[in-house]
């Protein structure tokens, strides 16, 4: 889980919002999630991510990418595709993916 907000990215950029409801148990999910984090960090144009999960089980991960080419590069990674198949087979009750272009962005940080 990321423990800092992504900030300071100059628009325009893209977001990939992955919202999910997990199945029971880990079943290797944590290890694969760490590996996916390592892989995506090597994609040119990857800018960072934020993630959260409710006590009720809804998870939201927002990945930030410079352009659509970076998203396509991530989507085409064979190891990522394999993890997606395993996710549908074992880890998720349901999920959705939303991709958007960010035109404006601002934030606040105390202190």
From TrEMBL:
A GO molecular function held by the record: monooxygenase activity
Domain ABM residue range list: 13-85
Origin superkingdom: Bacteria
Keyword hit for Oxidoreductase: yes
InterPro entries: ABM_dom, Dimeric_a/b-barrel, Jasmonate_Hydroxylase-like
The keyword Cell cycle belongs to this UniProt entry's keyword annotation: no
Keyword list, A-Z: Monooxygenase, Oxidoreductase
Name of the protein in its database record: Antibiotic biosynthesis monooxygenase
Annotated organism of origin: Streptomyces sannanensis
């Amino acid at each position: 889980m990321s423990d800092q907000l992504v900030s300071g990215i100059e628009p325009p950029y893209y977001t990939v919002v992955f919202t999910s409801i997990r199945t029971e148990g880990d079943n290797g999910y944590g290890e694969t999630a760490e590996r996916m984090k390592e892989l995506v960090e090597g994609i040119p144009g990857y800018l960072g991510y934020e993630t959260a999960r409710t006590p009720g089980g809804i998870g939201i991960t927002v990945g930030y990418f410079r352009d659509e080419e970076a998203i396509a590069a991530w989507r085409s990674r064979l190891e990522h595709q394999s993890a997606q198949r395993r996710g549908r087979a074992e880890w998720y009750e349901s999920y959705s993916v939303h991709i958007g272009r960010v035109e404006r962005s601002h934030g606040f940080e105390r202190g």
